[in-house]
Please model this.
Amino acid sequence: MPRELNPEDSARLDEWVAAVADALGVTTPVPVSSLLAIAGDVAHQALRPASPVTGFLLGAALASTPSLSADEALARVREVLAAFVAAHPESQG
Model:
């Protein structure tokens, strides 16, 4: 679970997300808390560099599969993470 952001950082994050979403033409809601949570879990339970790559893959999956919801995509990543951790217990740290 991600650490709580102070109000100033939370406002800056909201501003950043809105600016990037606008630049990329993203009009769907961005589940920031859920994305931060999965990014932290992947970084600490699988491998740190896997975190941004996972974020990219989530976006690609949502863009290429209109019927896939963000919640379902996040759930699938959690399933993969659980299986990966079970197969690679040494990678947790």
